[in-house]
Structures are given as C-alpha cells and as structure tokens.
C-alpha cells in the first residue's frame, strides 16, 4: 500500500511539474539505461559460460562434449522457465509484435528477467540461436511495465516498448542509429516525428551504458582496409539476388522445422530429439555452436582455414574446395538448428542466425569467385558484411535497419552504397515470392494475425460487444402479423429480429417485408411472422474481430447485421455505430 501511495504522490507531482513530453523523455532515458544493463549482463554471461565450457578444447581431438552441451542447456532453460520463472522460451520478437497489436502493449513483468536467464543457458551451452531477440523482449518488457507503473496509455506504452528494444539493440551492437531504425521498422511500424526523439535518447543511453560497463569491445572486430570499387557493382547485384533466395530458404526451413517440432506432442521428447540433433550438428560443425559471431570475425579477417580446426572430420583438410563445402553445409543446416533450438524449449531468436548465414553466404560468394579467378579479386570482408545486410533485409523485411546496423558496426560508411544496393535487391527478391517477414509468418502459423494497415489496427481495438444496439424489438416466429404491427407502433427501428422461446435467432423481418399487407385486416389474423421473415444476409459472432465484421458488411451490402453468441440473439450492429466509434477513437489517438 505504501508503494502505491508513493507512486500516486509521484504521479501527482509529475502532472504539476512535468509536461507529458518531458516525462516521456526522462522515462526513455531510464529505459535505455536498464535495457543496456540487461544486454551487458546477458552477453557477458553467455561468453563466460562458453569460455568455461569450451576453453580447454583442442583442435587435434574430437571434442565429444559438444554432443552433450546443447541438451543440457535446453533442458535447464526449459525446467527453469517452466517451474521457476513460469515463462517458457519460444518466439521473441513475434510475441512483442502481438502484444503491441492485440494486448494493449502489455508485456508480462516476468519477461524483464526470464529471457536473460533462459537465453544465457540456451546459447551458452551451444543452442544455435541469437541473443538479440531475448534482449528485445527484455527491453520491451522493461518499457511496457514502466508504462504500466506510470499509468500511461497503450500508445505511450508501445513507444516505451520501442525505446526498450532500441536500447537493447544499441547496447549489443554499438549501433544507436541502426537500433532506432530497427525499433521503428520492425517493432513500431509507424511513428510520428515527436516520438522519434525518445527512441534516440533510449538508444544512446543503451549504447553509453554498454560502453561504460564493457568498454568499446564489439561483437565484430575488424578493420576494413580495402575501399569500395564501383566496378564490383555487378557482383553486388548478383549477391543481392542470392541473398534474397537464401532468405527464402532460411524462412521456409525455419517454419518447416518448427512445424515438425510442434508435431512431436510430448515436450520431453522434443527436448531429447532436439538436443540430440543439435549435439550431433555442433559436433560435426563446431562453428554452429551458439551465436557464431566469432566465426564471422574469423572470415572477415581472412582466416577461413581456422573454422575447420575444431571439427573432427575437417580439421586436417586445408583444401579450398573443402572450405566451400563445409561453409555451404553450415548455411543449409543453420536455419534448421535454429528452429530446433527454439522448438525444443530453448530461448533465443532468428536475428543473429540470419546475420550469421548472410555473412557466410557473402564470404562464399567472394571466396569462390577469387578461387576461380574471374575478372577481378573481390574483397571478402566487404562481401561478408554486405551479405549480412542482405539476409537481414530479406528475412526480417527490415532493409533500412540492416543498412544502418552494418554501416555502424563497420565503423564508417565506406560500404554504404553496396549496403543500400544489396539490401534493396535482397528485399525485393524475397518479397516477390513471400509478402510477409518471418516474424509475421511465425505469428500466422500460430493463428495470430496482425493488422496490415493502421486502419485495421484501429478497427481491431473496437470490440463488437461494445457497439451492439439492443433497442430492436424481437418477435416470435409464430406471432401473427397483428402482433408485429403492434411492435411497429412502439418501435423506433424498422428491423425486427425473429427470435424463438430459447432466444435463438430464426431470421429478420423489415418494414418493407409487410408494408403492402399491414392494413389488410384478414391477413393480420392469418399471416404469421415466420411466413414473412427472411434470413439475414450475414450474421456476426460476438467473438469476431471488427475487420472480419466490416468484410461481412461490404460483402452483403447491409447497413445493419445481427449479432449472436452460440446461436442466441444479442442485438444488432450498424455501420453508422462502427463509423462513429472509429471516428472517436481516431480523434482520441491523435490527441494522445
């Protein structure tokens, strides 16, 4: 009670001394700091676990512990998530999108810390997923719950969710501009200029927090020595198309694998099968262990032969052809390993795996061309980084985020032109075959549909039960015409629902249906309502979403439609009532 009183007093003080805009700016900075702190804790924990588990591995021996680690990590993550935290891993960013769209931007408080713990165990023990999605969930949960604590409306909470996501991504990559654009492009989808400033503040504070705690250490450590050459643009065009096609493969393999995992009914069987599969894959292909960013650093630095060191089957082979085969197999297997990790009960996301696969695709493209000796040597570091951008644009449908994220982590804008070009080509290629991003497709696979436009989003906030009109007078199907005429005298409406003794809707009757006989005294005694009634052009269900309801109105051409619940008549909904409610909410949204 004391806590609630303290918050109430603070909110009263805030209303007197701080404008809404200033208050949001302060909250965005705090959220950025806490999101950055959570990102540092997670990444540091994962690296510590991985170092502890694999530091004594030797490249000249088969390291059989690789087979065991993923099973241990996924089992631990599932057990702790289910029985201690009450929050099992799974999809990350899709769940955030769904909470913003369908749950008034409310994210459960447990997600502030649950994904930090379960993701650290999953990835630290070799689960083939990324930490970015769990961090986005953590940052978003911080933003959502701060908004709830401060009694902010859903729109303001959504903005704070974006601030949490921006702070987390900025802290992980040290890319504040890319983080802001990611929050807008992927999380919030649409935002005003005034709302842009809180995202900037949160992103900067997340990045600064990371710098203070762990210094300038970055996920990617390299120095681009070559300059961009315009003559390479035809190769970048081809790379963009390849990235788009690989993005399609990535998305479809993730979804297909997730479906297979879902079909395994028993959770412990999923863990056993998934852990065994991952253990074997990581044993054969050690670069798939965890996030895999160290592999990308190795490739960018030009030390490709080192990636074979810890594999028991490839370590003694230094043939360039074998490097190509090895990396190609990793590209094919990585999406499956990612989906198996999540489907088994682990916690993580597809953000890092898409960057990982993209980097390998770019390296393979340049490495193969250089080995064959066509035209001019290609800078492998450039193509590795640009292809990371291409895969991110294709898989997540976030071309702008991809451009600025990779541009920032390279420490400059030397590659800005090829990044823009490949991102656009990859995105166009992917969307030609697949309209939605992998995040939206994953939600659709779960039966969760997001609105396509802002109009749909606003419509979805209107509940049919809140716009039902109950002033239409019902009549029994066995009633005589004269009884109906009595209702006409007292009714203000010209539609009458025909309802039986169990309140079940049997039909409707309008004034036009009996206008020509209503003054015929003989027919008033002999004609029954059931002889005059008609079936409604469409029937609305009380559980139906408003988008579906509007489609029925358009399809039928009706202005009023009846609403039922399990066949029982509840009332009518009119287009005019919906439009009026829509207009009021639109005005309220603009005021907010």
Automatic annotation (TrEMBL):
Name by which UniProt lists this protein: Chloride channel protein, CIC family
Annotated TM spans: 21-49, 61-81, 112-131, 158-184, 196-214, 234-250, 271-289, 321-343, 350-368, 380-406, 413-433
UniProt keyword list: CBS domain, Chloride, Chloride channel, Ion channel, Ion transport, Membrane, Transmembrane, Transmembrane helix, Transport
Gene3D superfamilies: CBS-domain, Clc chloride channel
Ranges for domain CBS: 468-525, 533-590
Membrane topology of this protein: Multi-pass membrane protein
Keyword flag tRNA processing: no
Compartment(s) where it occurs, according to its Swiss-Prot or TrEMBL record: Membrane
Organism: Algoriphagus boritolerans DSM 17298 = JCM 18970
GO molecular function: chloride channel activity
GO CC, one annotated term: chloride channel complex
InterPro entries on file: CBS_dom, CBS_dom_sf, Cl-channel_core, ClC, ClC-type_chloride_channel
